[in-house]
Amino acid sequence: MKKMTKGAIVTGLGVALLLGGGGTLAVWNTSQTANAGSISTGAMSLTPSKGVWTTNLSQSAIPDISAYRMVPGEKLTYTQDVAVGLEGDHLTAALSVDTDDVTSGFTNNLKLESFAVTPRGGTNVLIDSNTASAPVEDGSYTASATLAFNANGIEDMSKTLDLSQVRYVLDQQAPQPVR
């Protein structure tokens, strides 16, 4: 065997004897807290006021939507004030309208025609299209959704449409890192 190999074996045996044979091998260790502080999560809220249904045929409010009888070619608009609460650094959200849970016997002839979100007391409409989503910030808004009824012959007569499930939804938007 070479001298180098013999030396390594002898050194290894010596360390093994020292560790396992009652000897001690002292190692020091220390730690400190990082004192990094604490962090809190943000929150989102959507608080709607009582909404109002109107018809494009008379431009007047419909006092009881459950007693109203819609006709072909008519458009109904649901408008309500909503308070959006966004609490968090870099928190952004979009307000949308959801008609997925509206149930009826219609033959897919009731469509969301437009969705508009206007800052409360302002004139700037943030969106008015079929995309049905608007970026919003913390504050008060007026939101309105227009539903259009295009009848498909007599099969859409005497049908019931439960509009109680039309709702506005506030969704957090993924934050975009600075590039």
Give an account of the 3D structure.
This protein has 179 residues and is mainly β. The chain has one domain (43-173): Immunoglobulin-like, CATH 2.60.40. Helices cover 10% and strands 39% of the residues. The chain has one helix at residues 3-20; strands spanning 43-48, 52-55, 61-62, 75-87, 92-98, 103-104, 110-119, 128-129, 133-136, 139-149, 161-162, 167-173. The strands form 3 sheets. Strands 1, 2, 3, 4, 7, 8 and 10 form a 7-stranded antiparallel β-sheet that branches. It has a 3-stranded antiparallel β-sheet with strand order 9-5-12, with no helix packed on it. A two-stranded antiparallel ribbon has the order 6-11. A hairpin with a 5-residue loop joins strand 2 (52-55) and strand 3 (61-62). The protein is elongated and about 105 Å long. The two termini are 61 Å apart. The model has no long low-confidence stretch (mean pLDDT 79). It comes from Citricoccus alkalitolerans.
Query: What is the 3D shape?
Result: elongated
Work out the count of structural domains: 1
CA distance, first residue to last residue: 61 Å
The total of helices stands at: 1
Could you say what the CATH topology is called?
A: Immunoglobulin-like
CATH C-level class? Mainly Beta
Q: What CATH architecture do you see?
A: Sandwich
What is the tally of beta strands?
12
How many whole angstroms does the radius of gyration measure? 34 Å
Kindly state the mean pLDDT as a whole number?
79
Q: Which residues form runs of ≥5 with pLDDT under 50?
A: none
Strand content: 35-45%
Structural class: mainly beta
User: Could you state the order of secondary-structure elements as H and E?
Assistant: HEEEEEEEEEEEE
